[in-house]
Amino acid sequence: MSMKRNPPSSTSTTQNNDGLSASMITAQTLTKKERIKVVVRVKSPLIKGSKKCVFAINNKTIILEEKGKYSSEFQRDKSLNVKKNTFTFDSVFDENASQEDVYNFTTKCLINEVVSGYNGMVFAYGATGSGKTYTMMAMNYKENSGSINISESGIIIQAFKDLFSIIEEQSERFIITLSYMEIYNENIRDLFNKDSNFLELRGNNNVQIIGLSEIVVTSPQQAINLLHKGNETRSMRYTGANCVSSRSHAVLVIVLRQSTEQQDYERFINTRQSKLLFVDLAGSERAKHTKNKGKRLQEGGHINKSLLALGNCISALCNGTKAQHVNFRDSKLTRLLKEPLSGNYQTIMIAQVNPLLEFIEESKNTLTYATKAMGISKQIRRNVNVSCQVPLYQNLIVELRDEITRLKSKIKEENNGNKILNENDKAMQLKNEIIALFEEKMKLRRQLLDIDSNILFLKTEIEKQNQLMSYWQSKNNKLYRFKNSTKNINETNMDRSIEENIRNITSNLDSIENEKDHYFQLRSEIEEKLKYTKQRAVSLENELHVSVDEEAEKELLLLFCRVNELETDKLSIQGDRMMDAYELHRSEQLLNRYQEQQKISDRIITKQRQLIEEKKISMPSDLQSLYNLYQQEIHAITLQNKDFNNTIDQINFPDVERSGKSFFTINNESKFKRKADSWSDSSQEWSIGEPVSDDNKSPVHFPKVDDIILNIENDRSLNPSPIPPAVLFPPITF
Ligand SMILES: Nc1ncnc2c1ncn2[C@@H]1O[C@H](COP(=O)(O)OP(=O)(O)OP(=O)(O)O)[C@@H](O)[C@H]1O
Which of 157-171, 281-295, 712-726 has the highest mean pLDDT? Predict the structure, then answer.
């Protein structure tokens, strides 16, 4: 039987020494408290009669008995002095805890938080074989059926189910995407694109993984299928400690984009985003247990090194070191997890321990780091709509308008009785100083606008460089290269030039990032100055109120009002122009990306179709339907401006003639035709939807318009494909 545990509730009275309800984690405490929540799960099942060294004594306390003097039927001895080996956490799950228990008391409430705009991360930490992957993503199938028993599966599977059911209840629209990567031997691989090259991790503060696929999912089942597919690609091997041991750290990224707009992807790009990360770390290894040699040993070395770097970061953060002074740069893992560990993420650590005596060192280590993680505090805030963050200039306008209102109300104020009717030297000096401060404020505001404009420019530069990076990385991608083929000199030179380009872009990006940081720094300095100038001006205006004659004061304030009004208009026009240019640039970039993607897809489809025709391969009916749909789309572009009632003969396809009942064939003289031997030449350019044929081989077939329309109708009624298409979003920023 599992330990009795209260259901999660924000009204729990059980408090640990942090004042946090320790036996459970609730949505409320997660939003109120900012420290990492830590739970420990003791692995099960045990081999009968085996000696234990870890004992969960209640649902928040665990003890480690170093000498292993107790049997597995250990009964807690209250008088026993085990204090120094007692560890307290937000929750402890003993060997009998179910997957559902672990999910309900850790991740469940995080799902609501993520839907409402917070970022979240759940990561599993522990030695090899301690049950991390089991807790995170085990898929438990129902007996005699292929379907998954969700409540007995890992927390990611349970999270998928809740996530989709929660967003269904919301009034806002959401688009959910998945990305999945592994860090294997310090290299990042896309688990949804198994043949892709290693991916670039870029940036220091806002880390991005360039080229990582992001795939839209619309149901829990799709998400499970994708996860399963990704896991097939993940590096897992037999070791002496675990027969299916993860040789890499796996990071699943769920991005929720929220919008009240129509459902088209572009509209979701500038909307509020929240991220939910699930990290299944590889386990720390001791050669004594794993008996690893050669490649496995080398993998173990990388795993231990990156876990050590993670442990160091945890230690530094728990000692109160500011994130900017913690060394996250020691490994890709820590660079990637910098923000989730120290920044704007609600984070849950699941520390896994194997209770067997022989794993006492590993368990002690895990419990020590888990205790340290309990001490990490951070600021959590809800993400706002991305587009709201951009027009910083609007703040300046709001501020100017406030000032105008303030000045106007001051003009209306009655002067007090002590007014000096004739301006003396002091009053003159006061007026001059106020005017100088006013000019200074104007200057500072203009500087802020200039800085914002530079920041926006740098942002577009970053996007441009990222696009270039994706381009070169895709060139570097070995997806369609023949395995085992030896490279000729040209290819080797090509590889070198690609690498050179990637290096150049990386260095460009680094310098742009530095420049951006510099502008942000400058911005905050100027904001500080502006704040000071405003305060000084207000106090001088108050002095003026008692020193200068009422008419003169009014005149001056009216002048300020007028100048402020003009300045507001000017700022507003400049700012709007700046934003328009930025948005236009972004739309162009997005359009370019889609067009590029479309062109590539078209070429692939054309070539595939050509091969199928050439080799007379029979197509499965669903693929045939998709080809038909594609064909129709291509024709639809041509038909767009024509009267749809025209017959196909009237459409300007001079080289296409009707053949038989159901197909069109291409004339041998067709301008569309290509030589068969040129098909394998990858340098050949193919235009969109170009029908291809070969003089000696069978003609390329096109379905009749009626058939096409029928096929579209059929296609619309098809179930969504189990693996949905990848969509190009801007790279995720962690
Ligand atoms: N609570 C549990 N109940 C049943 N079986 C479990 C439990 N925890 C772990 N196991 C089993 O123990 C074995 C090791 O677990 P798992 O692979 O999850 O460990 P791991 O910590 O991910 O290891 P590694 O770091 O080597 O990848 C697996 O066969 C798993 O099914």
Answer: 157-171
Same domain, 635 and 579: no
Q: Can you tell me the mean pLDDT for 361-377?
A: 92
Token readout for 92 is 């402890």
Q: Give residue ranges with CB within 6 A of ligand 1.
A: 43-45, 126, 128-134, 242, 244-246, 282-283, 352
pLDDT greater at residue 203 or residue 477: 203
Name, in order, each residue with C-beta under 8 angstroms of 295's C-beta and a sequence gap of 6 or more: none
In this structure, the answer to whether residues 91 and 59 fall within a common structural domain is yes
End-to-end CA distance of the chain: 40
Residue 677 CA, distance from chain mean position: 44
- Residues with Cβ within 8 Å of 525's Cβ and at least 6 positions away in sequence, in order, are none
Which atom of ligand 1 is closest in space to residue 134's alpha carbon?
Answer: 18
Domain contains 195? yes
Is the CA virtual torsion 88, 89, 95, 97 positive or negative? positive
- Per-range mean pLDDT, top range of 563-572, 642-651, 668-677: 563-572
CA–CA dist 576, 456 (Å, integer): 12
pLDDT at position 570: 77
Q: 584-592, long-range: CB within 8 Å, 24+ apart, which pairs?
A: 585/460, 586/460, 586/463, 587/266, 589/460, 589/463, 589/464, 589/467, 590/266, 590/269, 592/467
All residues at 6 or more sequence positions from 365 whose CB lies less than 8 Å from its CB, including other chains:
127, 284
The better pLDDT of the pair 20, 42 is held by: 42
**323 in a domain, yes or no?**
yes
- pLDDT score at 418: 53
Query: Which range, of 191-205, 501-515, 590-604, averages the lowest pLDDT?
Result: 590-604
Domain containing residue 360: CATH number: 3.40.850.10
CA dist list (Å): 553 to 307, 437, 440, 542: 68, 16, 20, 11
CA-closest residue to ligand 1 atom 8: 131
Distance CA 691, CA 50 (A): 70
Closest residue to atom 9 of ligand 1, CA basis = 131
308 and 432 share one domain: no
Structural domain harbouring 417: 394-462+490-584
Say if residue 30's pLDDT is above 80: no
Is residue 475 included in any domain, yes or no? no
CA of 532 relative to ligand 1 center, distance in Å: 59
Nearest CA to ligand 1 atom 15: 131
Q: Bin 117: left if φ > 0, else alpha if -120 < ψ < 50, else beta.
A: left
